[in-house]
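QA checklist item 7 of 12: single-chain prediction sanity check.
[x] sequence parsed
[x] length recorded as 359
[x] structure emitted
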Amino acid sequence: MSQKKPNFAMKMKTTKIFKIGILTFVALIGSNNCTMAQETDGQKASPTFGLEYTGEVQTDFKKLKSVNLLELGAQLPLTSKLSVELGSISVLTTDEAILTNCLQNFSSIDAPNIPFALTTAGLAWQINERHHLFAGIHRIDDNYFCSDMLGLFTHSSCGAFPTITANYDIAAYPVSALGIHYGYTKDAFSLETSLYNGVGYKDFSKRDNVFRICPESDGVFLMAQGEYDKNATRAYVGGSVLYSDLHATVPKRMRPVVWAYAEHDLTERFSVLAGYSHAFGNNIACHDFYIVCGRYAYKKAEFGVFSSYTRIDEKDEWATELTCNIQFNKIFSLQPALHFANTDGKNKCVGLVRVGVKI
């Protein structure tokens, strides 16, 4: 049964209202900026710039592949509370195909060749010590799934859970989207919430335009997460809702995902993590994701073991990573990792060495 399409006037009205809302919001911040500029121009911070290079050599013990990721960032203060934030990525790989046909990619930086893509471009407003706001181009994995233990591992599911990324084309590495992000912090509690265009992009032309806002065809993506950090325990509970017709393939409706994970420091050196995520609804590839991790810190090295289970496209996959990250100094790090996966009854093994340079 075919779905009745909205008329052109209704499409234009929906898109126009959304665009006017964003422009009005930016204009309000701009007017506030003018007032603050008169009061605090002499107190604003200096611009800051950053460069980060991550390189990997990967092997399935039959062939080699390399991936190179360059990230650039800048923060340009307009006043003491308002600044322009910019960020970009460039990716160069010797093979755009994934080394093995795992359901979850073992590398969190694997991507096609990308000469240049904006990942951040917008206005950041530090309203006060508890509230901050950002409007512009952004990625969800810059604000969510960013705990210390998840950040240790090279596996892609530690960057964003597959209950979101395997089901929807939202703004997660390597693509971004226009949206608004709000954060609140008080003592041990913090809250993050975001509203994005329902599809992420990385280019600047035609339909694949990172500045595109089109709720009618792309949908809208709402995300929120609460964090509690106290007494060596960090707990995270979050959820997201995509309102979309998945590129006109199914009727438009709400598509929720929930997740929860917690980290606990058993000793000063040894920490553990456990988590679970579930995606509701039909016509999706992944409904459940389970994860457990352990980390041991010794001097400049961190040793980690990660294991997860998920079911994607009616196939089961167990994935495990053994890794060691050595931070030689503030600039240079080296991280070998060994990945094992059992996908639909077939065993696979991949090794990689990751090099990091941060300036």
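[x] summary fact logged: The CA atoms of residues 112 and 171 lie 16 Å apart.
[ ] second reviewer sign-off
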